[in-house]
């Protein structure tokens, strides 16, 4: 396929790069300098393929998908690029020859953490799959100067440290100033009547302008020479000479524009599944969307003259509502700049935009105040008003006299612009991200929209890339799988089902569990080096890693640990299989209860890990700074996958899929994609507990439930809860965890008590945990279970997800790069 790897040439290139970049010889270079030099060498290969891809696309003139997302949680590039170039082993060997360890070199690279969690990581997996399947695609996003904060744990508390990921330079990015675009904010709209056409023209004046400069990141397909592009936009001030004549010499304005440019791409908002309504956030959204839509239109016009057929060559996938201004921005360009009528522009827009819904939780829904929106984006607001006027007319025509329908579906209502409603009204597709989630959308959250336009609604169950999360993250298991069934699973994950024939094979079971053990040793080393805690790789590694959020119920997990600790203390003679509970989670910087939960986990860890009387039967570890790079180590080493969200709240989850791929059975609720995981692997190979989504929704629709009944009738639970407020885990400040206690029992706040049904599910969870222990004690049974999880994970590749998007939404043609 690609040019054959030449070890000698590679070493020479690395040497030359170390000289050119740092004026040093190999033996004087730091590991970081070697990382840079190796990356530039690899980039050379990539650029050959990037050019070849561009040439092929240029020739074939295909349709592109523009995957628009505020977040791309890419992680590290070097190892992944080597994997996809199929040069990982070659480079490892070449580096060893000159005295360097590729693993150590990889560790020099900062994670590209331009995302919070699942939504951003999904975007990254999708780009990998698009390139591997050979579909023309652009990722469109923001080049934040600071990505997701680094998490330090100090005295058990989360401390946020800025993530200066660009400080040593980013070897893989390419600045493309020739494709810069201008983005306008504020000012007012002047209406000019054109006598010749008899139409009004809309001119934005008195605005501030920012230059958007794209940086391109190569997205390398697996072993196919395809290199697609992630294009993220940086903001620069437009120099004062380029102000329009109206503003010439306006010094104050020049300074304001400078500040706007500096602030706009400064930092990623660290909220996951939570809308904060900040003005700067809306600026970020319009900034990257305006630049991306302008770029897509420019690209189309290079080859085509009829803008009314734009949708034949471009489709926009909106990753949640964050990029939804794309709808109005495309309308603006088509009407104001391309001269289309409203009807023509609407026809193009509604054939171009498609929307993915990621959550049903009310606090995540984006609703912008009209005042803010119209001040910042006056022309865009005008367009949305007109979209709303026509949409409301449609609702009224469909449901005459039914004002309730207008109230529930209008795009602008009650002083707010509702982005989800705009995305649904203008999108040709609305998809949920797991079967259960899509059904809840249709039956509950978006019921009225579904009733009015059922043809738009569809499901695309999320997926993950096996190239990063098995081939790169778990090389031992990857090699074992390939030994047994060949390597086609790398691009065709369902083939991994061929492992099923080994599920009862004692030798295969032992090999499989021995690999798990080695991965646990590798993680134990990481924990020793990063936490200073000694964990026993022979204990059960029970893992919950994901964003810290009440609905994900890390609290249920740690309360259960407190319960187990009580049991062991009460019954020291009890036969208890040693367990290591591993947590990893960042909390949004302003999410107080989530941060207090981190403190609770660390406080419980302190007490338990230092209690010699329990003889290491229990360990609790909070891994600092959970992110893509350490996630790869964690999934490979997990025995148990904790997926314990309140049923109906987790739209899909993707962490659950990564655990499954790596042979960790799910301990979880029937929520999100857990439902589909259980369907694939069989109920007997998972540990399911808790209320169903229907039951939760039923309670919610009827005013909640009464956790105090459980508190009063169950002394184990009562004891654990009392330990939150009696100083057991905070001897110097017994009130420390009062807020958590209150959240479960009291209605001091306006919230219902125990909004997330933790007490309701506690006993069922504890029972499921007992089943986990029992299953683990039977080595053969556990090995079979673990292996079947890997073997049944074929559905959850993002290659499948992307193929479904292509077949059912985007309708792209596969490209092949000719030699
Ligand atoms: C996969 C992944 C997530 C999403 O995890 P969920 O359990 O689905 O919430 C978040 N962060 C990182 C670093 C991931 O790799």
From TrEMBL:
What Pfam families does its record include? Answer: Phosphorylase
Q: Which Gene3D superfamilies match?
A: Glycogen Phosphorylase B
**Which residues are annotated as modified residue N6-(pyridoxal phosphate)lysine in the UniProt record?**
658
Q: Which domain of life is it from?
A: Bacteria
Q: Which cofactor does it need?
A: pyridoxal 5'-phosphate
InterPro entries, alphabetically? Glycg_phsphrylas (IPR011833), Glyco_trans_35 (IPR000811), Pyridoxal_P_attach_site (IPR035090)
- Which Enzyme Commission number(s) are listed? 2.4.1.1
Catalysed reaction per UniProt?
A: [(1->4)-alpha-D-glucosyl](n) + phosphate = [(1->4)-alpha-D-glucosyl](n-1) + alpha-D-glucose 1-phosphate
GO terms of molecular function:
glycogen phosphorylase activity; pyridoxal phosphate binding
SUPFAM superfamilies in the record = UDP-Glycosyltransferase/glycogen phosphorylase (SSF53756)
Return the GO cellular component terms, semicolon-separated. cytoplasm
What biological processes does GO assign it?
glycogen catabolic process
Question: Which CDD domains does the UniProt entry name for this protein?
Answer: GT35_Glycogen_Phosphorylase (cd04300)
Family membership noted in the UniProt record: Belongs to the glycogen phosphorylase family.
UniProt-recorded name of the protein = Alpha-1,4 glucan phosphorylase
The source organism is Marvinbryantia formatexigens DSM 14469
Taxonomic lineage of the native organism: Bacteria, Bacillati, Bacillota, Clostridia, Lachnospirales
Question: Could you tell me the gene encoding this protein?
Answer: glgP
